Structures
1.
Amino acid sequence: MEFLEALEQSGLARAFKTSFFAYPIVNALHILSIGAVLTSVMLMDLYVLGAIRAVAKAPFMALLRRVALIAFCGALVTGFAMFAIKATNYAAMPVFLAKMTLVALAALNFLFFLRLDRQAEMPSKWIRVSAMTSLGLWIGALLCGRFIGFL
């Protein structure tokens, strides 16, 4: 708890609390990052599940992997900055903890997906299971994130 309280008193948190523009800009960048993560991951998942066939797999997946990774990093940085403002409150919220758990599981699933996708000898069934799991985890994380603002 001391770490969370110190984080709330940090220069970063104070800057966001006192600036008229900083928090809204970081919040908007967080939403933009989340949108890019969800869009790129969901497009990869839908491709794997057979909903997208009009484009070549290798360049499509390579582009979406890069977008997902960059956007995920952006969401982590902006999310941490917003967390710093009310760290003790957020850390005590079950819905916030659920969101973080779902994001962590989704990230692990993404790493699993990348490993499966690179191993041609792996059965495609497991890649499809990973894609379906990804859709569920990311949608769950999105829903939990939306609830945070209303609690």
2.
Amino acid sequence: MKLSRNSIAPPRIEMMPLIDIVFLLLVFFIYAMLSLAVHHGQPVDLPQSSSAALETQEAIGITIQAAGLSVNLFVDEEPVSLELLSEQLRSKKTEKQDDQGPEVQIFADKTVSYQDLFQVLDRIKQSGLTRISLQAEAEGTTL
């Protein structure tokens, strides 16, 4: 029996499934990179700065929200009063034992008064933490 070679099509690589997989991987890696920027706090309207950079290391996050004449304070998304802030930070300091102590990142709303910000900074220093950074939003980016 003789087979006809003309009826057998040459093998070919289908490109559509390959393109689908490449786009799926692209979406996965974009989502993974965006999830590296972890902010343990409440949403606030941060001030803008041209030198703001993305922080990726683990730190204690303090959020200061403006609430009329007073402020709302959160330590890693847990509400706390100004009077109990230094005690809360001392307990966090013992949990996250490091050679230099944990870093404190302050996420303050841009409408928070200077006096309120300094009261929080005083409480942080009273708790024995010295690595403090004020967080800002990079210029040109919006939420």
3.
Amino acid sequence: MAYIQVIGGLVLLVFAADFMVRGSISLAQRMGVSTLIIGLTVVAFGTSAPELVVGVDAVLTGVPTLALGNVVGSNIANIWLVVGFPAVVVPFMCNAKRFTHNMMIMLFSTAVFIGFAFTGVFTYWTGLVLLAMLAGFIYFTSRQREDRETLERVLCDMEGLPEKPDSYRVSWALIIGGLIGLVVGAHILVQGSVVIAREMGVSEAVIGLTLVALGTSIPELVTAVVAAARNHCDVAIGNVIGSNIFNLLGIIGVSSQLGDIPVPEGFLKFDLWVMALASLTLLPYAVFGRRIGRLSGLMFCGAYLAYITVVASGASGMDGINNFIGKI
């Protein structure tokens, strides 16, 4: 039953997020909101909505480390899996230099996040700092002319902006239904994850790093695959970078307003550094516009598989690596 809960929760989260985004886009179009603002707010929030609602529910349910594991695990999956898998299918042939600034912001956000983690707990005040950084990032992005042109050029194709938006009634129905689905799906997912963690004898943080993180990264993975197939790899990479920034600053920033989020020792020794390494592996492609080919994609996927295997061994840091080697 617990596994059915997890699968059902993930499916409900994905569809509910899509309904909410579609309704919000139609409503924004009806109200005359520009494509740029829709891209920076509705679409960006929609792809990270599952992680946000899961994080909030985890804190309210009393398993805050699951929220932290979901964020760290999702950021690792976003780079090594969401970028790696599409590159294996369709190599990215694009120049991603336009994302250099956002890439640097992601790395800076990662460094700040790790620094706060070493205080041992994400508190109310820590969350306020993270949210302030997120607001600054959104403002900075909205001022970039090149980003505006990119969004307005490909957003209709990638995110399915309808030529004729839905009526106000339908839009509100999609938004309200999507929000309800997100809340219910997140609660079912968290409850099932807690049961699985206890039955397997592992912490909620481990389930957050693996099962929950992988499931909530599905929207980004779907977007990346479609982007690669349509030769819009700039959208794929931009979506990953933006999602990772939102995960670090927005999800933990909001979740920590509802309760403290302690940082397990294993995160300080291992998982946070893997997240930093994953972020750095994308740096050469973003800065120098290098081709992300099949070999790079296979290496990314292999790195993610190795990480998941180590974490699933039931320990963290060098203990997890030693357990993994011992099983081999």
4.
Amino acid sequence: MTPEAMKDLIVLVADLDMKNALTALLSRPKSLETRPFTFECSSHTGKDSGVRQHCVEFLRLFIQTHHRALFFFDYQGCGREDTSKQVVEEQLKASLERNGWTDRAEVIVLVPELEAWFWSQSPHVAEVLGWGASDDLRAFLIEKTWLNEGDVKPQKPKEAMEAALRWVKKPRSAHYFKELGEKASLRGCQDPSFNQLLTVLRQWFPPTDQLG
């Protein structure tokens, strides 16, 4: 396949929640402050540990069809919680480079998990989770000790999200991650892994007016 015919990006994630969130986010180039780019997003049946263990093998199928690759999985559940996030990422990137992906692939380990991305002061969070107002949701989280006064996001983001959904009697659904990916503001997010994603995408796919 000629370079011109190759797609820009292949993405491998751990589950449907992550696939929905990333598909929605990557479809917002203006908000990401990138040029539009083509991508495919797949989830791994082995969840977080499956992505970590098999991402190098998975990529062999795409080395001639995609210019770049991204891998996402949660630190919790990846099977290497005894090792730092940075070491896990560096070891996988080294393996990818040995397999022909030098400067073409990035590994992002989410600490502790994907839900940390979406806890912000954006009113869309409360809306998607079925709460009438952000202040009501925040008051609930503080009252139930999921959130400390002055903090933006809970220390246990996944459990806090599930508690908020239970309180308003909404079932957990991967569709919420699609909605949050489509609506949530990308400005002001304090999560390091999210900002890592933005940095990588802006380097790979700079806005057209920055080219040349």
